[in-house]
Amino acid sequence: MEHVLDVLTSKTLTYEQKVFSLAKEAEDSLDVLPIPARTKEFFETGALNDLFEGHAPYRPRYIMPDYKKFVEQGSEFLRLDPPKTLDELLSSLQVLYHHVPSITGFPVYLGELDTMIEPFLSEEMTDEEIKEKLRLFLIFLDRTITDSFCHANLGSKPTRAGRLILELEKDLQNAVPNLTLKYDPEVTTDEYAQLAIYTSLFCANPAICNDVLNRDAYPCEYGISSCYNILPIGGGAYTLSRITLTELVKSAESIEHFLNVLLPECLKAVGDYMNARVTFLVEQSGFFESSFLVREGLIQRDKFVGMFGVTGLAECVNHLMAPKGLKYGHSKEADDLGVQIMDIIEAFVAEFPAVYSEMGDGHFKLHAQVGLDSDKGITSGVRIPVGDEPEELFDHLRHSARFHHYFPTGVGDIFPFEVTARKNPAAVLDVVKGAFELGVKYISFYASDSDLVRITGFLVKRSEMEKYRNNDVVLQNTTVLGSKNYDTNQLAKRKVRS
Q1: Which NCBIfam families does the entry mention (predicted)?
Q2: pLDDT-based confidence at residue 165 (cuts at 50, 70, 90)
Q3: Cβ(6)–Cβ(247) below 8 Å
Q4: Which of 35, 45, 117, 163 is the most buried (most CB within 10 A)?
């Protein structure tokens, strides 16, 4: 109750942020999930983390509506006819976004914007006329979806709409939505990809997704939501819980004890806990029975998966390799141990029976979880720790390629570049092409002087973080999370590439 009062009387939270915080307190006052004693021990040590999903799941964590279907049919529930003009399209999308829930309380996925917008652009409309409409639309998204765990995609095929969005984003400097370009060398022209990279070197947007590799994740179309979650369109993710290897390894008596005893035991605890969450959500929460998104075919229950998160591999390996003085990202033996750990995790997830997981063939899907603002000394997913990156960018990317293939529901790396890279986006595109040929799935950039920076996967403005540090009220709640993470994990020390 003291914490509730702290929220109510806070002078640094907006009204909206207080409402969401109070709702979380109410949910966490319940105790509806069966949690064995050993699982509780893993929670207490931090080896298992539910990523603040709450103690009583009443909506899926990530929802990926089929927005293209919405554009075709409109919505009876929202009393919206299928849009016929660009103005009607943008207005209808704004209405629908307001009614798409998620773990954050806001939509985490806004669709493949350029391919939705493109059919509504006539030859009679000038670029400037279109850009003014899109500018207002993008400003609306940034100012009303006050949480940057919100994502929109750009398709791999160059479009007029995509080009105009990229031109606008460079000037708008918006933190919402997070954007990703789906890159396919057979479809995406160099000119279009270079424009995307050039834009990202001003505003950290868009990231670049390896479309060729990621579209193999599901038998249906995929989208990218939140930070970099690869999920089925028309479905999403029930839940994302994680094993925090950094914390688990602290109880290890030896490498063998960790691999053969602790790791399998904790993996099962995570799997059982996720099944409990999914079961309650599907069988008791009433979400899939009451949501108009289901009734109108914009989402389907059998297109949801459970995301089995992994984080802190670097510190885990470094702890086990400490007697030999070997480090993750700098030693073949250390990296081989990382691969051995991931092989065990992958084999477990491939065999563990997950409830209500038709899209995962009866199993969960692995995800390289990006971290929390409280993750002091825990490196996101399978990344190399900040400040300890290999000297050569290509060595770093080769390392990434060894680990990206494990994660069908998302994995990525972040690289700050010197501002001079803006003069040669073609060279950065060559880096992307080489990385994707190696097996890297997702890559993002920002310039060393950019106000917008990527934290773990989401975007935050340095200027807004400075306002928060000075106890000023900020619009986006992710500024609070980002500021803590940026400082705690010393993200300003990321190696700047040339």
Answers
A1: glycyl_YjjI (TIGR04040)
A2: very high
A3: no
A4: 117
Cβ distance 227 to 370 under 8 Å? Answer: yes
443 in Cβ contact with 467 (< 8 Å): no
C-alpha separations of 214 from 266, 282, 364, 425, 442 in Å: 28, 27, 16, 24, 9
With the CA atoms of 90, 96, 100 and 106 taken in that order, what torsion angle do they form, in degrees rounded to the nearest 10? 50
- pLDDT, residue 480, reads 81
Q: Tell how far CA 284 is from the center of its chain.
A: 27
User: Which tens digits make up the pLDDT trace of 8-18?
Assistant: 999 888 888 89
Q: What are the residue ranges of helices labelled H in 145-262?
A: 160-172, 190-203, 211-214, 245-248, 255-257
Cβ atoms within 10 Å of 66's Cβ, excluding its own: 24
pTM of the model: 0.95
C-alpha–C-alpha distance, residues 1 and 85, integer Å:
51
Place of tokens 């060398």: 185
pLDDT for 124 equals 96
**Alpha-carbon distance 355 to 360, whole Å?**
10
Q: What is the maximal distance between C-alpha atoms in the chain?
A: 71
* DSSP symbol at 479: H
Sheet holding 413-417, edge to edge: 109-112, 151-154, 178-183, 207-210, 442-447, 413-417
Q: Hey, how many other C-beta atoms are within 10 angstroms of the C-beta on 40?
A: 12
Cα–Cα nearest to 400, from 429, 372, 364, 437: 437
Report pLDDT for 498: 87
